[in-house]
Amino acid sequence: MFDISSSEDQPFSPVLEEMGYETHNVLLNMGSLYVYFSLFTSGLVLMGILKIVKSFVPLSIIDKLYLKLKDTIFWGSFLILFTEGYLEILISAYLNTLSSVNYTSSDEFSFVMSYLLIVIQVFVLPAAYIYMLTRPS
Question: Exposure of 30 by Cβ count < 10 A (0-12 exposed, 13-18 middle, 19+ buried)?
């Protein structure tokens, strides 16, 4: 699926390699977390499509599906995904930002993805918790 230049990529240290960070590439280091992140992103896209359809076709089933998906995406997926994988995501993203391997388009995607994940972990996740704690019951 991805054309990742893993043959030119070496781990930073034997300790990191033993911990499972054999490469600098964030997509490879995150493993199953990347699959969950992709499913989360697909859910956001589906939510956007449902919101657009909801404005044109006022069916109650679309409204119910949108509200259920909204609750599931935010409370069920976003907070759990980024809280459970906090350290793994930050370590993988940080290692990718230190890498100088940018041979393929997948390597460039991984590099951009690492900065996006750092922003989400450092700014968006705390903002979501602050929002959750300060909203009226």
Answer: buried
CA–CA distance, 124 with 61 (Å, rounded to integer): 31
Q: Tokens 């043959």 correspond to what residue?
A: 7
Amino acid letter, 135? R
Average of per-residue pLDDT values in the chain? 80
Q: Quote the DSSP letter at residue 102.
A: -
Mean pLDDT computed over 128-133:
85
Encoded tokens for 134: 């300060």
**CB distance 30 to 121 below 8 Å:** no
Q: What angle do CA 29, 33, 37 make, to 5 degrees?
A: 120
* Helix 86-98 / helix 105-119 crossing angle, nearest 10 deg: 130
Count of other CB atoms within 10 angstroms of residue 98: 9
